[in-house]
User: What shape does this take?
Amino acid sequence: MGIMRQIYGNDFGMAFYWNQKEEVTSEKVQLVFKESGFHLTLSELEQFSALIVESKSRTSCCSDCKAKATCSRFLLQTPAKQIDLAVSIDELEGIHDLVNGTIFKMKLQNYILGRGRN
Assistant: This one.
């Protein structure tokens, strides 16, 4: 068994569980993107998704800007209150897909292994 089990990934980053002593620890997921790593619970991922949506709503002032996709002037708050990230619109979209894809996969796995079992 490897040291990690991937949950979800895209061109921007990946999310995975760490393996501990031949077992997967699934309470927290490691989310890695933009040279950063976060070790988050499902509820913290959901909070991060809401923070991303909030950050996206603040980018509407740049709708006519030709450089908005590559401009790194948007501040993204993270579930770690002490850490904010400067990101571009493209990075914001990539992080949003990564976080939401991870949430979906974690909830699907919880359903299949929990309530969905017969």
About this structure: The chain has a mean pLDDT of 85.
